[in-house]
Amino acid sequence: MELSTFIDDLVKNVFTDTPREMLNGNTEYMELEEWSSLTAFSLIAYIEKTFGKRLLLPELLKAQTIEELFLIINS
After folding, report:
1. Of the four, 21, 49, 51, 64, which is 20 to 30 A from 41 by CA?
2. What is the pLDDT of residue 49?
3. In contact, 33 and 18? CB cutoff 8 Å
4. Which CATH number fits domain 3-73: 3.30.70, 1.10.167, 1.25.40, 1.10.1200?
5. Considering only CA atoms, which of 41, 44, 49 is closest in space to residue 72?
6. What's the whole-model pTM score?
7. pLDDT higher than 90, residue 59
């Protein structure tokens, strides 16, 4: 999966209230208005369902940008 496809999927499945134009690899997703603990758990569930990778909360919080998150998932 490419980064742009990953971002498109995030808009559809996790960040549903954020316009796609606001998201790119450098976006600090925890700074988005809709970010909350519920969004964090939704993101973790999306990653596990889509990528089959169990992401722990400390790993999620380590990634500051969408691209950093993407790299963690694909490592």
Report:
1. 21
2. 95
3. yes
4. 1.10.1200
5. 44
6. 0.90
7. no
Q: What are phi and psi of 23, to 5 degrees?
A: -110, 130
Confidence of residue 60 (pLDDT cuts 50, 70, 90): confident
3 state SS of 35: coil
The interaxial angle of helices 3-13 and 37-51, nearest 10 deg, is: 130
Distance CA 34, CA 28 (A): 12
At residue 29, does pLDDT exceed 90?
A: yes
Query: What are the strands, taking DSSP E only, across 7-72?
Result: none
CB 14 within 8 A of CB 39: yes
Residue with the two structure tokens 């993407």: 70
